[in-house]
Amino acid sequence: MDRPLEPLWRGLLVYRVLTLISVSVLALFRLDEYAAPAGALTVMAVMAVWTAVTAYGYLGGPPDRRGRLAVADLVVTTGVMATTPFVLTPAQLDAGIPGMGSIWTPGAALASAIAFGLRGGVAGALVISAALLLSKGRIGTAELGDVQLLVLAGLTIGFASTVLRRWAERVRLAVAAEAAAAERERLARSIHDGVLQVLSHVRRRGAELGGGAAELGVLAGEQEVALRTLLTGGSAAVDGAGRRDLAAALRALTSSQVTVSAPAHPLELPAATVDELVAVVRAALANTAAHVGPDAPAWVFVEEGDDTVEISVRDDGPGIPDGRLAEAEQQGRLGVARSMRGRVHDLGGTIDCDTGPGRGTEWIIRVPTAGVRT
Amino acid sequence: MIEQTPVTVMVVDDHPIWREGVARDLTERGCRVVATAPDADAAIRIAPAANPRVVLMDLNLGATSGVAAIAGILEKLPDTKVLVLSASGEHADVLDAVKAGASGYLVKSASAEELLDAVHRTADGFPVFTPGLAGLVLGEYRRLAGEPSHRDSPAVPALTERETEVLRLVAKGMTAKQIGERLVLSHRTVESHVQNTLRKLQLHNRSQLVRFAIEQGIAGAE
Question: Which residues are recorded as modified (4-aspartylphosphate) (chain B) (predicted)?
């Protein structure tokens, strides 16, 4: 996982190249002043070659060798610095001319910081500082300032490297956890599918065999419906904006008697509206079960209009005779009327009952969604 | 239903217990199961040789997609009919299957008799339209109508008033006979309205695929 450190390595390289140019140009201008001009040129050639070697090693080379290269970097750089007493004259040093390598040398401390984090950064900075003081053989304000800057740079870059490493590790763990969750879900799906298949099969064979097997078949059928509803009702949860999918919530009412038809895409409404509508549909279905029979089939159909949602709950029963509902309402038996009409009116909607002897009963619930949906 | 020649059926399902169970049920009831396949690739490979009248297709075929299998089979056998048998309510997949050319859909909780009836209806070229499928199809037309249409896109299919009326009644659980009585139409007219709603979706799907292929430079002009 050395990829997250890539920008740091690239930055280091830019620093190296720029400082190499700057140090070389300055040195060439005052080549005559050096105690050993040839030595100065040789040392600068070594710096140039080493810059190229590290450029390849830090960016192109194998990541696991970068640590070793950073150590070698410290060795080579201190080597460059160690030539200072032989190349520069004491007069130059007295005049405040920087030692060999000059501002190119902190690169090694930075490499160590990137490769080994906070501790590596500080250690690298201390090594270069020691080399600086020893090679120049003096401790002045300038030298102390350099040491301070070196340690600060080592700390900062080391800290950045440590943080980036941790962050990358966390991302890696998160990605791994996500992949594991997806795999678990995939396995669960396939297991659920298998269980559904077996339950369906038991139900069908049971029905054919009759007797005790038929009873087992019915039980398997109920579990099949329950499991299927559970699996497909997952999206009925409330989302962050407090909205729920009405289609999914209604699908959850599916049973061996109740068939639900809805669009494939979600019909998102405020959760409270969905809860009320589901309660109304439940009441209508309970009405069917009570008046037509517990095994009577019923159909729930939901459809969206431009700014309404329409739900139909229908059965094929004998129908409610004319005036029965109004009569019940007048007698104070408000069961169906109140729980359904009241709820729908509170949502600003309408509820109609299409019924008649021999043509079943259909409740049609219309609720406005303009302003409610966005 | 008495058929002169048995209906030839191919069963595509990744679950062996179900596959064998359905094959046996159908065989016992006079169909001829000419092939079975556990996944989409096998189904596409085997179908041309078996040349079934009806393909019973599970949509959840492990790692492969039943929708892809439908498209692949119908490409080679345009006269074959596909009936989707879906275990869990994969609503979007069912719609995709219908758009890919499936002529009907049944949940696996259907009884052996319902299944046999559906196979015969499919073999005779009628759609098998459950209330659930009608709800999905109505919802899809609704969604298409609400989509911002592009100038160069093929016309978005729309339902006639009568088709909408018929589909609604199907979604509410009424049989073709009941719908015919309610709307004073013949049973056959109701069937053909229902069939049209599917065909329009399939045509739209195909024209969109062709347009996509041309845009992507995969195909030349048709």
Answer: 58
